[in-house]
Amino acid sequence: MTSRYRFEGFELDLAERVLLVQGEPVRLGSRQFDLLAVLVAHRGALVSKDALMNAVWPGQVVEENNAAVHVSALRRVLGRGAIETHAGKGYRFALRMDEPDTPPGAEPATGPSITPVALPAAPPVFIGRQHDLQALALRSAQHRLVTVVGAPGLGKSTLALACAHLRRPAFRDGVLWVDLLRDEGPLPVVSAVAMALGLEPGTELTALLAVLRSTDLLLVLDNAEVDAAQAATFCHAVLEGTEQVSLMVTSRKVLRVTGERLFRPPPLSVPAGPCDAQEALEHGAVALFVDHARAQDQGFSLGPHNVAPVIALCRRLDGLPLALQLAAGRLAMFGIDPLSERLNDRFRLLTRGTQAGPQRHRSLRASMDASHELLTDTERLVLRRLEPFEGGFTLDMVVTAVDDCGLDAWAVADALENLVDHSLVTVEAGERPRHRLSENLRAYGQLLQEEAGETDIVRRQHAHTMVQLFERAERAWHLMPDDRWLAEFAPELCNLRAAMDWCLIHDPAAGVTLLARSRELFELLGLADEVRWRHAAFESELPATLPTALRARYCIDHAHLLSTVAPVQAASWFRRAVALSRTANDPALLYLALCRQVVEDGELSLSALGELVAEINTLPEGDWSVRTRLWGLAAQAHLWALEGRGEEAVDALGNSMALATEIGAAAWLKDDLHRLTTVQLMHGQALRMRGIVRHLMACGPESIRGRALICLAVSMLAEGRAAKARVLLTEFIERWQSGSRERFERVAPVFAWLAIEEGRHDNGARLMGYVCRARFDQVESASAWRVLVGKMRHQLDGFRLARLQHEGAAWSEDEAITAALALAPAPIRNAAAADGLVEAT
C-alpha cells in the first residue's frame, strides 16, 4: 500500500508525516495531519464524522465540532473546495488524485495481462449496519489485513461487499472479490484468486504474487472458513510479497495471521425494553424484519397491535439477520404470535430461504450445520455440553461439565478457544472472562443432543457442575464480603435455576444440596419468595439418600423462611433441625441450629430460650468463621433483650456490628440495625452507639443506610425529640420510594411511635393494625409491640383502639405510607364495619 499521495500540486507523505507544496513543507498540526490522511486514504469516498473522530481521537471523548475546526484549517491550506461537507453525514476529499509514482530505482512492473472479474453489485438493501460499515471501512484503511469474523447468518458477506464498494475509489485497480465457497464445493485459494484475475486455474502462488505485486487493489476473500489454514497461508504470502495489496476476509473462523486485525460485527440491535413502533424501527433487527415482511406482504405494518411480539421475536432470534429474514418469510403463513410460539422448533420453522442464494442460507439448520462440519469431535462434544448453560459460563464450569469424558483441562480450554475462533461462542471481557452461547446456538446444541441421545447426561453434568460451583460458593461465603461474593456468584442465577428445575424431577438429592448452598444468593438478591417455594417442593419428603448434615441444613433454612409467614410451622422445623444436628457429628452445625432457633423461633418461652443459650455457651468453639460466630452474638442479644437487660443486649449487638463491618457482611449489618431498633423500641433507650450508626448512615452500603436512619430515629423518639425523628423518617421514606425498597411492615412500628409522640393517636393505632395484620417480624418485635400498645391505651379506650386497628388492617401499603407522616389524622374508613366487629367482640 502506498504511503505517498499526490493531488493538484500537493504531496502527502504518510511515512514522513509531512505535506509538501512545490517541495516545501506546509505546517500542519498533528490532528490536522491525521484527519487529512484519513480523508485522502478514502480517495473521494464519504467519511462519516464518527469515523473521523474514532480515527483521529481514538478512545477519547472530545467535542463534536473538533473535526469541523480542523477541516476549516485544512481548507485554508488546500483551498475551499478541497474538502466537501455533507450535512449530517460527514466529509469527502474532493481534489483529483494523481497516480502514485514508481518508487526510485524500480522498474515498471511487467507480467501477464489480467482481466479481473467484476465486483458483485452492492447490496440493494442495507439495514442496521451503517455504523458498522463506516467502522469497517476505517479499519480497512488503517490495516492491510482485516478479517470480518462472526457467527453463521450474521451478514458478514453483505457487510464486506458494501465496504468493498465504499472503498473501491481508494485503490487504483479497484476491488477483487473472490468467493471461496460455491455450491459445488470449496475452491483452493490460489486457484480461486487466479481465476478471479482471469488467469489459468493452475497458476502457482509465486506467479500469482508476481502479478499482484504490480497492482494496487483490495482483495476480498469471502467464506475463508472453508479452508482457514490455506487462506491463512495465502494471506501471509500476500502481506509479505506485495506492498499495495490490501486484504479483507470474511470468515466464521479467525485466521491467526501476523498482522491480522479482527472486526466482529455485533448482531443487529433489538430494543432493550418496551417502546413504540417508531422507536423500534430505529433498531436494525426490527427494521430488517419489517422490511422483509413487507416484501412478502405489502399490507404488513408495525404498530401498537404488534410491536411487542415483533420485538420479542427479534430478541429470541438474537438479532441474527439470516434468522430474521427466514422468520419474515413465514409470517404470512402463521402470523406473528403463532410464529413466535413455534420458535421452540425453529430449525423446522426457518427453512424457506431464497432459492437463488447459497445452500447454507436456505435454512437456519443448514447455516449451523456448515459451521458444525468444520469442528473436531472434541469441539463438537464441548459444544453439546454448553447448551444447558443459561446466562453464560466460565472455563472452569466447562471443565467440570465434561469431566466424565476423559478430557484434561488443557484439551477443554483449547476446544473452547477454538469455538470462540469459529464464532460459535462469544467472550465477555473482564477480570474473569465469561463465555456465552446465543439462543440460536443453544437451540442448535439441544438438537444435536437429541440426535446423539445424550440429553439426560448433558443435563446431569450441568447439575453436577452447579453443585460443584456452589460448594465453592458456600466456602467463599465465610471468607468474602457480601459485594464481592455477589459479584462472583450472582451471574450464575439462571444456571442455578435451570439446574434446580431439572433436579426437582431427576435428582432431588442434588436439588436439596443446591438449595442448602445457595439460599444466601436468593436472599441477597431479594428473592426470598422464590427460594421459599423452591423449598416447599421438598417439604413433604426429603430424599432418603441425603446426608444428615444436609437434611439439617434444609430444616434450618426452611424454618427460617417460614418464620415470618408461618411461625407455628417454623417452630416445628426448628425442632427438627436441632434434633438432626445433634446426630450429624458437626458442632458448628449444631451451634448454628441452636442460635437460629433462639433468634427466629417465636414460639419459644423465655425459659426455653435461656436453656438453649446455655447449651450454646457450652459448645466447644472450633475454628468457626466470623459469620457463624455472629449468630451466637445475635442469640445472646435476643435473650438479654427479652430478659430486660437492654444495655447488655446493645453491647452484644455492638460487637456483632463491629465484626460484620470488618468482614463486609452488609446484609448482616442491616439485620443488626433492625435488632438494635427493636431493643430501643422495647426499652425506650437512647442510642449509646450513635457514632457507629451515623457512620453507617453516611458511608455504609446503600442497602443499610435506610436501616441506620430508622435506628437513629428511634433513638430520637426515646429522647423525646419527635421533630428530629420526623426529619430522619422523612428522609427514609424518600430513599424507600426511590428504589431501596423493603416491606414497609418491618419499619411501620417506628412510624406508629412517631404518631403517638406527635399526638396523632388515630393514625398510630391504624398503623399498629396494619402491622398486626401482616404479622411481619412479630417474633422479634413482640415485646416492643406490647410497649406501643401500652402507650396507646393511655390515649384511647379499648373499643376505639380495636376499631382503628381493624381499619388499619385493611390498608394498602400506599395508604400506610401516606398516613405514616401525615400531619392530620387520616379519615376513618369502613367505620360501620369496624363498629360491627367491635360489637361482635
Could you report the average pLDDT, rounded to the nearest whole number?
85
Determine the fraction of residues in helical runs and give it as a percent range: 55-70%
Q: Bin the strand percentage.
A: 5-15%
Strand count, sense and barrel status of the largest sheet are: 5 strands, parallel
Question: Which topology of the domain at 130-263 does CATH recognise?
Answer: Rossmann fold
Number of helices: 41
Report the count of strand segments: 16
**Gyration radius from CA atoms, angstroms:** 36 Å
Terminal residue distance:
97 Å
Strand order of the largest sheet: 9-12-13-8-14
User: What would you give as the CATH superfamily of the domain at 130-263?
Assistant: P-loop containing nucleotide triphosphate hydrolases
CATH class of the domain at 130-263: Alpha Beta
Q: Structural class, judged by helices and strands?
A: alpha/beta
Q: Under the CATH scheme, which architecture of the domain at 130-263 would be assigned?
A: 3-Layer(aba) Sandwich
Protein name: Helix-turn-helix transcriptional regulator
Keywords: DNA-binding
Pfam families: HTH_77 (PF25872), Trans_reg_C (PF00486)
DNA-binding region: 2-95
